[in-house]
Design a protein that fits this description.
This protein is of the alpha+beta class. The chain contains ten helices and 16 strands. The protein has helices spanning 21-29, 31-40, 43-52, 62-68, 91-95, 142-146, 149-152, 196-201, 205-208, 275-282; strands at residues 3-7, 12-16, 112-114, 119-124, 160-165, 172-174, 179-187, 211-218, 222-229, 237-238, 245-246, 251-255, 260-266, 271-273, 286-289, 294-298.
Length: 299
């Protein structure tokens, strides 16, 4: 299955080259795969597989991966203590690579929200139960995603950004504004793939996958629910940044190996996603953005 998306950085439609595409198709479309998927989505298995990516054996996967997916490796820093000639000690260290200073910038204008992740986005001005993209809206609303009655009312009918990170992407995620953390908690669950093919076959993935929720009070966009969703073969969701006070563009955390998703929920009437992204979402087209690119505007 071809996954097409709009690349806002080039202004053109593009086709995603999916890592492990045949495995995803088998898991979610064949009877045997569907039965086995209920075993493979157990967190302990993904954690074990993720731990293998920390071994020196996994280092051999790096060069073929860079070649197959055209990774612009010169844009990234080597692992701390290593050099550009031999930059990473394992596949996971390559996977969580950092951009060199200046490669990505956040907006200077206070009213503009910068993309929290380098990813393919769906955007919604208000999440309602009749939303059909990419899954029924009831699986994107605040009660199911947040799993915490304390915060349900704050994000009812508010805007939403859904950022899907592919294995080929930069896998660190950042704070979109200055502010402070009000709450932070895990929601335990399974680890299904977040590939569009898997979402088509199993519509409740975002509401049932393992995730971490952080409630932010921001200077310019009100309260935000920042939800990091794990996926199949994602070893861990790491919180590497501050969980107290934060600045716009600062690193919040990162995913170890695997595709994953960041979801941002907002308060109704506080901000609106980019118009082009809203139009693309209505057409069931994801919009690819670089980290820090304009993703929404304050109302």
């Amino acid at each position: 299955m071809d996954i097409q998306f709009f690349n806002k950085m080039t202004g053109k439609m593009d086709v995603e080259k999916v890592y492990g595409d045949q495995m995803v198709e088998w898991l979610y479309q064949s009877n045997t795969g569907k039965a086995l998927s209920e075993v493979l989505v157990k967190p302990w298995l993904s954690n074990f597989y993720g731990s293998l990516q920390n071994t020196s054996w996994s280092k051999g996967k790096i060069k073929p991966f860079i070649k197959d997916f055209n990774i612009p490796i010169d844009d990234f820093l080597p692992e701390e203590g290593r050099n550009q000639a031999d930059p990473y000690s394992s596949f996971n260290q390559f996977f969580i690579r950092r951009f060199k200073p200046g490669k990505r910038q956040y907006p200077q204008e206070n009213h503009v929200m910068g993309a929290p992740a380098e990813a393919r986005y769906f955007a919604y001005e208000s999440i309602q139960d009749d939303e059909l993209i990419p899954v029924k809206g009831k699986f994107l609303n605040s009660p199911l995603l947040l799993a915490n009655e304390k915060w349900e009312a704050a994000f009812k009918d508010g805007p939403c950004l859904l950022a899907r990170l592919c294995p080929v992407d930069y896998h660190r995620y950042h704070y979109p504004d200055n502010g402070k953390v009000l709450d932070h908690y895990p929601v335990h669950g399974k680890l299904h793939s977040v590939n569009p093919l898997a979402l088509k076959e199993k519509a409740d993935i975002f509401a049932t996958n393992e995730r971490v929720v952080t409630i932010l009070e921001t200077e310019n966009f009100g309260k935000l629910a920042y939800v990091e969703v794990g996926a199949i073969m994602v070893g861990k969701i790491i919180q590497s940044g501050s969980l107290k006070d934060f600045k716009r563009g600062e690193e919040k955390g990162y995913f170890l190996f695997g595709g994953s998703t960041v979801i941002i929920l907002g308060e109704k009437g506080k901000w609106k996603p980019d118009e082009l992204m809203l139009e693309n979402t209505k057409k069931k087209i994801e919009t690819y953005l670089h980290l820090g690119a304009a993703v929404a505007n304050k109302i």
